[in-house]
Amino acid sequence: MPSTSRPIRVLICNQHAMFRDGIKALLGDGSSIKIVGEASTGQRAINLLGRVRPDIVLMDTLTPDLAGDEATERIRAIDPHVQVVIVSLDENELMVSRCLQAGAVGFVGSANRPPELREAIDTAFLRCVPRNFARPERRIKHDVRCAAVAIAVSICLGGGVADAQDPHNGFFLTSPLGLSSGWDQNFVSGGQPLNDTEALLTGPTFAWMKSTNTTDFSLDYQPEFELFAHNSNLDAWNHQSRMRLVHRLNGRTTIDVGNYFISTDDPTRVLGNSLLLLPLARFEQNSFYAALNYRVDHHTKLIFRAENTVTNSNGITGPYAGRLNELGTAGTVSVEHKFNSSHELDGSYSFLHVDPLSSAISGGATNVNLFNAAYTYTIHPDLLLHLSAGSVVGTQSAMLGSAAIEKRVKGVWFAGGYQRYVAFFGGYAPLESMPVGAAGFSQGLVASNVYQVATARAWGQITKRVGVEAGAQGGLTGINLLGQNIRGAIYHARVDYRFNDRVVWFARAEYYDQNVAEFIPFANTRRRYTSGIEIALTRSPESTPGRSRRGPLAPDDDPLDRELRVPQDR
């Protein structure tokens, strides 16, 4: 046992409660080792890191959501202090090797070997730099008061007090309250450009969560109030809401069902992947999906996914009125294979059927067959390369392709790339987090337009208090009914200054341009400048994986978020 003034803090991650109980019994109740938490999935173990602050994580090679190497890699990236020891009855040499390459420091082939298990924990702890748990008395008193208030609020809400094994039950505010104002120039309403001063009040996301060993359910809603100084008739109440249910049938099979709804009067700044500028008018979209995820082995995953989207836009007039009103249905089969921590190859086939709600305006239904293959090369944790190629067969057949690179310099990520795709079908967009090989659709786009887009992004922390997020997107976005090429561009930049853990001041500038306006009766250039504050009323119950809240996401992020994410300040 290494010399230490406190016990070694251990977190156990294994989907089987009996296995976890066996480890606890073997480790005993002595003072040298303290079990600070248990997790049945890899993601729950990750979520518990900041709460229980373990020194050692005892990780299985396979959990219902993550393989052992993936979970190990993400734990080590979040908290390098934590050491991971693989404890599993599965002695697959390839998987054990992958876990060790991902950062695990030891392997115990069976939990029924107390001396070996204790020796592995002691050896791993020698790699830790012991944390200083001492805190000033004033801070301790402050934390006691905060804990008392939190318990009282939790009891009033009826959610109880969550223990370390189940922190995701109850009511939460999962995003900050935002208040901003600024100048909006050349936005279009009623067929004419307008200038006005506007104010935005973005409410926190009200979320209710329920989590068990096999099922996770969440339901949330976020309102936004948009107010204009001189055009009060354009004041709007915008909405976003989503529901998600994840049920783990066993260690390999997961059912994932979700629904996402958005209703906004300003679709141009909400539909981040669309270069088509739209007037201020009510735009509504409801998207439902159901997926079956089956992990064939430790490095291969098979996904069957079905989705349905209904889009309505009632503010477009003239020859294009009703063209965005459509019903889309899609079925996708995809395979994800991770050779090791550096190389991943994904392949997918999708069949999409887009049915206009008004055939007199938009013509008949469109069927699209999409084939796509994508490759991600993690050269090292600060440098990633994405490549994809495919083809689409539909109203217009075309080859697809994309290339993008991401590089981190100190605390800031930079990304750039080029892509060619048909409407919203397939490809990789580093500007707005469109995933490699995903088959999204709708969002204000039509299935006959070929897109060639170049993008660039930068995001991250310049200092502990100052953050930045900026992007540029431009290219050919299709051909209108008159045969004219539509060229569009979107630029935006945001600077944050963090006063403390809860209060952030920000300033943002946006520029939108389109040479031929398809849904607006004239070419349009829109500029928007805003500034305001964001206040975190409560802390989110879990940390977001990936490199950035606004940046490209890690491979195992929420697929609904990946395909339908709406920027919070666009």
Search tags:
2 domains, 16% helix, Porin, alpha+beta, 18-stranded antiparallel beta barrel, 9 helices, 570 residues, five-stranded parallel β-sheet
Q: Care to describe what's here?
A:
This protein is α+β, with helices and mostly antiparallel strands and 570 residues long. It has two domains: 8-125, Response regulator (Rossmann fold); 168-564, Porin, CATH 2.40.160. Helices cover 16% and strands 47% of the residues. It has nine helices and 25 strands. It has helices at 17-27, 42-52, 68-78, 93-102, 114-125, 137-157, 267-270, 359-362, 559-564, and strands at residues 8-13, 33-39, 56-59, 83-87, 106-108, 170-173, 177-189, 192-202, 206-211, 215-228, 236-248, 253-264, 283-297, 300-313, 326-338, 343-356, 366-380, 383-393, 398-409, 412-422, 450-461, 466-479, 485-498, 503-514, 524-535. The chain has an 18-stranded antiparallel beta barrel. A hairpin with a 2-residue loop joins strand 17 (366-380) and strand 18 (383-393). Helix 3 (68-78) packs parallel to helix 4. The chain is globular. It starts with 7 loop residues before the first strand and ends in a 6-residue tail after the last helix.
